[in-house]
Amino acid sequence: MREAEEFKEAGFVIGRSLLNQNRIADISVAYDAAFAAAGEEVVKGSTSLRLSELAHRDRVFTDLVADAKLLALCSAILRNPPRLRFLNGRTVEPFAAPQNLHVDLKAVSGETAFLGFIVMLDDFRADNGATRFVPGSHHSPAVPGDVMIDPSGDHPAQTIATGKAGDIIIYDSAVWHGHSANRTARSRRSIQGGFES
Question: Are strands 114-120 and 159-160 parallel, antiparallel or unpaired?
Fold first, then answer.
């Protein structure tokens, strides 16, 4: 599978148009309703709003993580049937500063045992807080804070993962990543999850 080879080299891959526009519309409605109903469960961070445990909030989210195309792509990378570890909603707020580059789990054995994924509910653009990655960084034992004076700043090798609503980013938990600055007056929504083998 071409995507699996791309993932191995870069530490992330974008599955294009994995979800059609009707499904994205349904998921977006459920996402907004979940945030509206959650009240104080919504966590306000310095750059975004977060809501955990989406899989328990609406059937549309459990259907999402059972999507055949998503599971096929993840299975090709993990080489085992993926099991859901978490599923959260994240809305990057208007005019949010860039998130620090970070890792979810440090690289240890060279094998990918945990995959993150990001479902684009809105288009990811260079100006609205799309996720940035440092390709190949999942092969390094270092983390951004070890080598960067300011992990919120641009890395010379970083790339912005832009795409359309319905695209899904699959990434190694050890790859350096973080959302870029949202320089627009509109929020940017996504669903973030993790699979383990």
Answer: unpaired
User: Structure pTM?
Assistant: 0.95
Homologous superfamily of 2-196:
q2cbj1_9rhob like domain (2.60.120.620)
The model's pLDDT over 35-79, given as tens digits with 9 standing for 90+, comes to 999 999 999 999 999 999 999 999 999 999 999 999 988 988 887
Burial 180-196 (b: 16+ CB within 10 A, else e): bbbeeeebbbbbbbbbe
**Strand-pair partners of 169:** 14, 118
User: Which residues, in sequence order, are CB contacts of 139 under 8 Å at separation 6+?
Assistant: 11, 107, 110
Specify which residues 189 forms β-bridges with: 91
Domain-wise residue ranges, the chain = 2-196
